[in-house]
Amino acid sequence: MHTIISVCELSKTYESRFQALKGINLDIRRGEIFALLGPNGAGKTTLISIICGIVNASEGSVRVDGHDIVADYRAARAMIGLVPQELTTDAFESVWATVSFSRGLFGKPANPDYIEKVLRDLSLWDKKDNKIITLSGGMKRRLLIAKALSHEPQILFLDEPTAGVDVNLRRDMWQLVRSLQATGVTIILTTHYIDEAEEMADRIGVISKGEIILVDDKAELMRKLGKKQMTLQLQTPLEHIPPALAGYQLELASDGNELIYTFDAQGERTGIVALLKDLNDAAIAFKDLHTTQSSLEDIFVSLVKEEQ
Asked: What is the pTM (predicted TM-score) of this model?
């Protein structure tokens, strides 16, 4: 798959000497949904802002479909639609006027049919003549996407697109993102909702303290870092784990009623059969067991903790 955005050795240091980004290298593939995860202050918005030409980098370069974002700013920026976290538009303008105006800012000729399609796709058509101040929070969020799509970009950045919206609207927007990807649009989203990345993304990048600490296909990430846990509910509480079971690195619940065994579900040998035999030999009986799979959230939390 071809690269549409190439970030090379990108760094950003503000006048306060705070270094927001440190030597970022990142390639975004054409047509993918890429989720950028990271805690508050990790550098997500700074990175997006530099790629979109809003913030100047201190070092490094960014190319958008071969166009340098500094030397060939207009061509690079014309390919990008940005949905920011906050609504920044005239509250007393109509929906139709503000989306049409956004299209004109990029030098695109008027195209009422296209604007109508965007508004219909976003369930905004019946609000086209309404002033922005009268819209609900969810409608305003949809309006931000309509403005970003007004000039027919090939790349769409979504910075916390579903922050503060209800569950139903979040799922509607997920469906919209999938439909955009189906038309060939490349989607880059930042999110605090790990389930959003797990649901939507083809690839995931994790940024912490201004550095990219991991980029991988979602499925591969889950395979490599996702662990399974088997929890055994004991018939009789234990005060401590017998030395004969030390090799399994078991965890004993605080009340002594459960043993927790973590294993690699993808490995050739999980060790479960041997563990159950050794439990029997140690006269430790259990009345029930269940297994759980690590979620993307578990993986994200563990990765960020390692960097602290």
From this structure: 0.74
